[in-house]
Amino acid sequence: xxxxxxxxxxxxxxxxxxAVCIAEALPYCSVTLIADRFTPDTxxxxxxxxxxxxxxxDIPLEQQQRWFKETIDHLLPIAQSEQxxxxxxxxxxxxxxxxxxxxxxxxxxxxxxxxFRIMTDRELKRxxxxxxxxxxxxxxxxxxxxxxxxxxxxxxAGGQVVKQKVNDLQELSSQGYDVIVNCSGLGAKSLVGDSxxxxxxxxxxxVQAPWLQHFIRDGEGQSYIYxxxxxxxxxxxxxxxxxxxxxxxxxxxxxLERCSSLEPSLSRARVLGVSVGLRPSRKNVRVExxxxxxxxxxxxxxxxxxxxxxxxxxxxxxxxxxxGLVRKCLHEMRPRARL
Length: 339
Ligand SMILES: Cc1cc2nc3c(=O)[nH]c(=O)nc-3n(C[C@H](O)[C@H](O)[C@H](O)COP(=O)(O)OP(=O)(O)OC[C@H]3O[C@@H](n4cnc5c(N)ncnc54)[C@H](O)[C@@H]3O)c2cc1C
Ligand SMILES: O=C([O-])CC(=O)C(=O)O
Prior knowledge:
- InterPro entries: D-amino_acid_oxidase_CS (IPR006181), DAO (IPR023209), FAD-dep_OxRdtase (IPR006076).
- It is a single chain.
- This protein is α/β, with parallel strands linked by helices.
- It has ten helices and 15 strands.
- The protein has a domain at 4-91 and 142-192 and 283-333: 3-Layer(aba) Sandwich (Rossmann fold).
- The structure holds flavin-adenine dinucleotide and oxaloacetate ion.
- Flavin-adenine dinucleotide is lined by residues 9-15, 34-37, 42-44, 46-50, 165-166, 183-187, 191, 202, 204, 235-236, 277, 279-280, 305, 307-313.
């Protein structure tokens, strides 16, 4: 008999990662995941899913390193197992190139990807507008496969999935959940009234170009080409506070021009589709717990949202952090329980 109940709000990569971590680590908890949108209709489905990131300004770098390392250490064995194609997790090698010397020639995650090194002059020759580059192998985690695979894993661990919009945390408290975990991404803006969360619109194209084997990412990620399992993702845009979910044909044209200047053969590639997602951005990702008065009850709420453009990259690491916070909440509620 399960003695404690935990509800996770969010059906994207952060919600499913968190729900799986909790359900697998705490078998005596009954875990329910609630979301109003599931794959293929989440922001996570739009992500290229490449593990790469820029640091958040006010979170200790060691903590961000740990999140990156935990995520790649979780995904690498999947990429190298017989589950790889079903889970949508693959290794991806390529180049990050810069027109100017970057502040961090060696990014904070360089030790966790494979074979990180500075590009040679010979390699840089094909990018005459670029002065500097980094070559490495990382993981690409394609959420259109990964999310259904994670859902199976969650159900196998006893988790339950409900499709429903949560208008107010009070609704969850009334249903008697012991702990609420908030992985609602951009939804946190209204669900918990967080005015620090804002959208950064991203548009990407999927093209057929099976001859491309290496990723190319230009500096700050304005333009990128990411070969994947069935197509190549080319992007992107970063439009701050832009809520438009519809495809902008001018953006598509601009993306194709920018990416073809990096990889001329793309001008011959067939476009398979175009998608738009709103990155759930925040100055700093929020992974913390608080007690919230809901009706007459003080209910522990663990937040895990605001990952911006790095939600896949940090998904497992921040999920483990959230699991630790859930454990603490349960400890405090049942001091004698063996948690
Ligand atoms: C074009 C583009 C490319 C990207 N590429 C990458 C990349 O290569 N690597 C990378 O790491 N990241 C990338 N990202 C960023 C990544 O997509 C996000 O950081 C990540 O998807 C955030 O995941 P999430 O689970 O927090 O949010 P979402 O995927 O948006 O999920 C939020 C979930 O919460 C649910 N929800 C919200 N509010 C409520 C509510 N009130 N009631 C019920 N349910 C609710 C939603 O229905 C949804 O299921 C990219 C993003 C874009 C747009
Ligand atoms: O920046 C990248 O390379 C991909 C990404 O995370 C995004 O578009 O948000």
